[in-house]
Amino acid sequence: MALLEVKKLGISFGGLRAVDDFSVSIEKGDLYGLIGPNGAGKTTIFNLLTGVYKPTDGSITLDGVNITGKSTIEINKAGIARTFQNIRLFSKLSVLDNVKAGLTNKYRYSTATGIFRLPKYFRLEREMTERALELLRPFELDGDADVIAANLPYGKQRKLEIARALATDPKLLLLDEPAAGMNPKETAGLMNTILTVRDDFGVTVLLIEHDMALVSGICEKLSVLNFGQLLCEGPTGQVLNDPEVIKAYLGE
Amino acid sequence: MKKLKIKPSTRSSFTTYAIVTAAFIAVQIMISTGSASNMFKGLLIPFCVYSIAAASLNLTVGILGELSLGQAGFMCIGAYSSAIFSVCTKDTITSAWIRFPIALLIGGIFAAIFGILIGIPVLRLRGDYLAIVTLAFGEIIKNVFNALYVGYDSSGLHFSLTSQGDLNLAPDGKMLINGALGVKGMPQDSTFVIGFVVLLLTLIILYNFIYSSTGRAVMSIRDNRIAAESVGLNITKYKLITFGLTAFLAGVAGAIFSHNLSTLQASKFDYNLSILILVFVVLGGIGSIRGSVIAAIVLTYLPEVLRKLNSDFGKYRMLIYSVVLIVMMIFTSNAKIRGFFAASFAKLKGLIIKDKNTPAKEAE
Fold first, then answer.
1. Of all residues in chain A, what percent carry a pLDDT higher than 90?
2. Phi, psi of B354, rounded to the nearest 5 degrees
3. B23/B12 Cα distance (integer angstroms)
């Protein structure tokens, strides 16, 4: 059975049909790409999958659990984590605290435990710090643990966002244009990072990207979206040579 | 084993505890040597009250990042509930050492309950809207207490919102809250020592809260709400906890305040007080607990000192006070001036200690 099963998903904003009849099936361990021209509805699909928007039609099933219309928090608990197209870090917190904020629900202790500094506080805080550093290591951010997130260079901010998303221990990781604003060298590094994330953390990855070098380099399967509708899907090589897809991107 | 390294958060909190304790000891020495004026002694309890109120408001304004102008309302609830408790029990519980801590807790708990009840609808709003609605709730609380008549006799409690006569008290009855005349007969339980202890406890609670996973979650929500939700943080829950804790501590401050008065009147808790406390928070530095305490003490002391200087000069004290406020605001909000002070301070520090690490600074 597929990890993520999306059936006939649709949403309307007033008269605008932003996403229509979108279906996709992602197997566990896939590295799946979602591409399409600007305004095709890719980020809207991410927002539907993470509960930011409630779909007007269709259903979303994660690992056999129906998560259609659930809140962002419930969906995160069910196992979907994401990054954002425009980076959204906890900018005044340190790199370490950004990841620890993501670990809050996994290492839960009460507010009173924190205020009265009970033994549980010290134990869980120590475990959290260890786990956070473990999560930062593959991104080579463990050396920057005490740096305020806003002061990180751009590329590292993108990586920190991925590390923070992984802190919630997701089954499915959604990356929204992870290579945006990166130079070819940084993109090459990012491709390795994404492969590491998939292989070492055992998460399934669904990513939106415009950088075709990244898409053809690491995505195994693709779905192409145009005007809110699915244009084409299948293995990467096949999809990128499809005449319909070329037409959507380049025109006639 | 590595060299023992103190976390920046621990250093920041313990510096504050040390400063407050040092100030307390200095004041005690001044009192025992007789060099403290009566005016100064009279201000010691207000120092504690305003410091607690300002530091706790900074939790909502600086750490949660929401503007609240209801602090005076919560202080009012704390002041009234604790005063009524003390008036009722001063004959049964004779020891102030038992009665007053209970009164403080009652003041805090009642304020926290109201804080959470008000917070449930109000915290859906943000920014200016939240400020206006909290201001309105503060005024409602004040005006309700201003018009409230409560008395008790052998048949139980009597309430009225119109006049004393409507209570229909039996001859053996006793007034508790007499409308705008307020509550009389609180035992004068507030002392500077208790005020100091409560202030220190408040600071410990605040710092421990900020540097716990709850505090981290609250600051995450402040920095980016959407991202906080995406990692599964329950926004409403954390906002309510923060708002409730702020109200609790404001209630405790109100309780200390009321036990320093012979007559407690609701008119003292008008919106001017809320704004005054917000001024302490803003001038002390939003997010800086230590700054709130220092600003509260300096800005409470300043008008009284100006009043005392001499009669002609004293006339202009509010003018001078407001000029000082403006100058302080310019100094604390201008990045260049702040940078200059930070640089000279770092240089000074470099002369004393040869230590080059710059600690992370999110909420000192």
1. 82
2. -90, 80
3. 17
Band (pLDDT 50/70/90 cuts) for residue B359 is: very low
Phi, psi of B338, rounded to the nearest 5 degrees: -60, -45
Number of H helices, E strands in chain A: 10, 10
The residues spanned by each domain of chain B are 8-269
Look up residue B11 and give its two tokens. Answer: 């250093």
Element (H, E) at B132: helix B128-146
Cross-chain Cβ contact A104/B217 below 8 Å:
yes
**Which residues, numbered 102 to 161 in chain A, qualify as contacts with chain B under a Cβ-Cβ cut-off of 8 Å?**
102, 104-105, 107-109, 111, 113-117, 121, 124-125, 128, 146-148
H/E stretch holding A217: helix A212-218
Beta carbons within 8 Å of B64's beta carbon, 6+ residues apart: B218, B221, B222, B238, B239, B242, B243
Cβ within 8 Å, pair B362-A72: no
CA distances from B82 to A86, A111, B4, B104, B176 (A): 50, 25, 45, 6, 12
From CA B306, how far away is CA A175, in angstroms rounded?
Answer: 61
Q: Can you tell me the distance from the alpha carbon of B249 to that of B77, in angstroms, rounded to the nearest whole number?
A: 11
Q: How far apart, in whole angstroms, are the C-alpha atoms of residue B90 and residue B99?
A: 8
Provide, rounded to the nearest whole percent, the portion of chain A with pLDDT above 70: 100
Buried b (16+ CB within 10 A) or exposed e, B225-235: eebbbbbbbbb
Burial class (CB within 10 angstroms; exposed 0-12, middle 13-18, buried 19+) of B352: exposed
B214 has a chain A CB within 8 A of its CB: yes
Mean pLDDT throughout B138-156?
89
Residues B317-343: tens digit of each pLDDT: 778 888 888 887 787 777 787 788 778
Percent of chain B surpassing pLDDT 90: 60
pLDDT at B4: 58
CATH superfamily of A1-79+171-252: P-loop containing nucleotide triphosphate hydrolases (3.40.50.300)
Q: Out of B208, B216, B223, name the one closest to residue A115 (CB).
A: B208
Identify residue B214 by its one-letter amino acid code: T
pLDDT at A112 over 80: yes
Q: Do B212 and A81 touch (CB under 8 A)?
A: no
Tell me the DSSP string of B224-260.
Answer: -HHHHHHTT--HHHHHHHHHHHHHHHHHHHHHHHHTT
Name the CATH topology of B8-269. Answer: ABC transporter involved in vitamin B12 uptake, BtuC (1.10.3470)
Domain ranges within chain A, ordered by starting residue: 1-79+171-252, 94-169
ipTM of the complex: 0.92
**Residue B93, token pair as written in the block:** 């519980």
pLDDT score at B311: 67
Structural tokens at position B108: 């805090």
Chain centroid to Cα B12, Å, comes to: 20
Say how far apart CA B225 and CA B219 lie, in whole Å.
10
Cα(A117)–Cα(A122) distance, integer angstroms: 7
Give the pair of three-digit tokens for residue B297.
């003490």
CA distance B266 to chain A (A): 32
| B74: nearest Cα among B114, B106, B128 | B114
- Please tell me the predicted confidence (pLDDT) of residue B237: 95
Separation CA A195–CA A173 (nearest Å)? 12
